[in-house]
Amino acid sequence: MDNAADQNVEANPEEFYRSPTTTPEADPWALALEDIDLATGSIFQAQKHHEYFKRLRQENPVHYHDKNPEIGPYWSLTRYEDIMAVDSDFERFSSEPSIALYDEVLGEERAPMFIAMDPPKHNEQRGAVTPAVGPVRLKDLDKLIRERTVEVLDELPVGTPFNWVDKVSIELTTRMLATLFDFPFEDRRKLTYWSEVITTPPILMGLTIEERLNHLGECLQTFTSLFHERKFEGNESQDFISLLANNPATADMNGVELLGNLMLLIVGGNDTTRNSMSAGVMFMHDNPAEFQKVKDNEALIPSAVSEIIRYQTPLSYMRRTAKEDVEIGGKQIKKGDKIAMWYASGNRDESFFEDADKFIIDRANVRRHMAFGFGIHRCMGNRVAEAQLRIVWEEILKRFERLEVVGEPERVEHSFVHGIKDMQVIAHPRQ
Amino acid sequence: MAKIYVTDASGTDQVVDASNGDSLMNALLEAGVDGMLADCGGGCACATCHCYIEGDGMSLVGEVNAIENVMLDSAASERRENSRLSCQIDISDALDGLTVTVAENG
Ligand code: FES
């Protein structure tokens, strides 16, 4: 597929492009509309993105920007209704070749993953791994999640600050990921590292492109040998690797295909839940009255979990590519154009959520957030994610009077993964 | 147009008028039928629109497709012979009088 980015690339891949106009310092309401480049990690890092989205929802809900040399021209959808319509319409809006504005390219090759495929291939491959996270399996996982949560929370230092992200969010989500892959438990932090390598521009991690490829090569090698070990007749294990290895739709994947799907499953199960697990603590700290509501009534926890996910929106957008000329909100979108569906904006759309900018754990339509997406690509791990978050809050309430966030959390510079790197917390035990 | 006789997740009966071309899921969702969550908006990707088709309705609603088959296995409540995802059923005159029970989808 030839997309505009290919014709437009002037950026040096060894450097990290930052928009000259859309910066944390700029006034979101004063910039010329065409200079707004939402695919700018620094505005998310500085938490300025909400203002940009608010302005666009009001003034230019279907927005066009064509000055980003790495991405090329792209559209941004900022209203709930438009996003839902496009997300539900896989016939006219393709997920190929990539669901990020930056096409994922490994060396010369694109890594195919089912999230970035259309039917029928998408359905076959997704169908292969779905049982790993379905309700049947979830019943077994529930107990395991609780045991681990108890273990991790019981080991937390009391009365002195620690990094919640590392000690709780990463630890718990990585353990779960290791279980879902049946990955050697003691090596589980490799999964976290690979996930970061996949989503972060190498320069921001101090890696060269070659070093990045080496890491991904190691990731592939490790999984390829597990994949072959688990490919045998009668293997009914429900871990991702066994399921992929033994389903006719995926058993014969080549190296890049395997890597593509692994990347998807690792990132999908890692950054997302992790960042909701961190952000929730911050939201409860910032909104003590809401925290009090859950303390008074634990039955509100599932609702609070949905609200945390809405309010954080751990993946800010998904991209589609128009398969034909189409009009959205009065704008003419051409076949082949890139479109970012900004879930982060739809989730704050005042015309859908009353007091959208407020964190309200028992709001009426709390389940209608769009952080999991809609349509055939909707997050398949949402039940596992929700279970992890629900249990962590149940166990927090048993142990702690409150979790105090000290200082400003350190956030990641990313427009796709909306995340927190470091958040210092003091745990105050229950009296 | 088809009249659909629905028992919702809490056991209450109601009659829903469904328009041709709409999905059964949409018809039930718009009628505010209890238990019809339809989280993915009809993408066959969440199994929270699970219903049981009563009587001889199964012969009228078409075949289960491949992805629906996988999703039905991962539905929150028990899969039975008469289980369907209502987003995969299109309303037509032929479905007039169909009787369905909404599964516990939470
Ligand atoms: S609405 Fe999600 S599967 Fe039917």
From TrEMBL, chain A:
Keywords: Heme, Iron, Metal-binding, Monooxygenase, Oxidoreductase. Its cofactor is heme. Residues 1-10 have a biased composition (Polar residues). GO terms for molecular function: heme binding; iron ion binding; monooxygenase activity; oxidoreductase activity, acting on paired donors, with incorporation or reduction of molecular oxygen. Residues 1-23 are annotated as: Disordered. The keyword Heme applies. PANTHER family: CYTOCHROME P450 YJIB-RELATED, P450, PUTATIVE (EUROFUNG)-RELATED. Belongs to the cytochrome P450 family. This is Cytochrome P450. It comes from Halioglobus japonicus.
Automatic annotation (TrEMBL), chain B:
This is 2Fe-2S ferredoxin-type domain-containing protein. Gene3D superfamilies: 3.10.20.30. Residues 2-106 form the 2Fe-2S ferredoxin-type domain. Keywords: 2Fe-2S, Iron, Iron-sulfur, Metal-binding. Pfam families: Fer2 (PF00111). It comes from the Bacteria. It comes from Halioglobus japonicus. One of its GO terms (molecular function) is electron transfer activity. Its cofactor is [2Fe-2S] cluster. One of its GO terms (biological process) is P450-containing electron transport chain. InterPro entries: 2Fe-2S_ferredoxin-like_sf (IPR036010), 2Fe-2S_ferredoxin-type (IPR001041), Adrenodoxin-like (IPR001055), Beta-grasp_dom_sf (IPR012675). Belongs to the adrenodoxin/putidaredoxin family.
